[in-house]
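It would be a great kindness if you could assist me with a short task in structural biology. A protein sequence and the structure tokens that stand for its backbone fold form the material at issue. I should value your view on which stretches of the chain appear to form regular backbone elements. The record follows directly beneath this note.
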Amino acid sequence: MRLSTLYMFKQSAEGMSKRVSDNNDVLLRLSNMKSLLRASDDPSAATSAVKSQDALAKQELYKNVRSSTRNALQHEDNILSGVGNLMTTSLTEKIVAAKSDTYSAEDRAALGKELQGIRANLLDLANNRDGSGRYIFSGFKTDSPAFDSSGTYIGGGEARKLTIADGTEMTVGHLGNDVFGDLFKDLDGAITELLRDPLDPDAMQAALSVASKAVDSGIDRLGKAQAELGTNLQQIDALDMNGDTMINDLTVQVQTAIGSDYETMTSLLMDSKMSEFSLTASMMVFQSMQKMNLFNK
């Protein structure tokens, strides 16, 4: 009888110890909000989790790159819109006016001064920087202006590109030379003739014609560049939609693999309740065993 009672006490103690261990394990998984704490818990699920996490990190990186690319393209589009306004209104209007026979030499000199101001504004736009301080029309030479004071292109020879999705590369900014061409040089020629004293009518008309053609060509290049920006922005929107779907799917895969999904967490919560009940029962049995006369002697 004594051996049987000792055996029962031992079994009760071991049972309670196991219930404590089980309860602590469930609580630990709940506190970490996942059922998979170690790779040894489920090697297959752990491997799946690592693969999904890597794929998820890659998609989130692409999403961030697309966001910065979108900002860069929108900024360039805003700058080009400003350039377009100067070309289609101010420049065209002043050049047409300067070619008119009704203007005096003094009037044309005044127009020459106005063209100087417009040229300065255009040069400022051509040497504009983005929010990170990078020159947007200098290609990979982002730390240098696209044009010098004479209007000569001194930027890089290759446009910046970024990988925005698997197998998808996108140009971030156009080269200043491709957008502005020889506009500054041709404007300088017209300004010089308008300010010449005495005025040379033939040379002036010739210079204004060259400048007018340069503006027309610039407007064409501008339209092409902005069309490309629009197409790229649409592509980014489409990639974002697809990318968001992939991110959501991969997030679910990771949660399922590590056991942080709603279903698993609900099951863990139920397990914790059952574990608490079992532990309470084991403690009651153990306490009853301790009160037996055999152990009170």
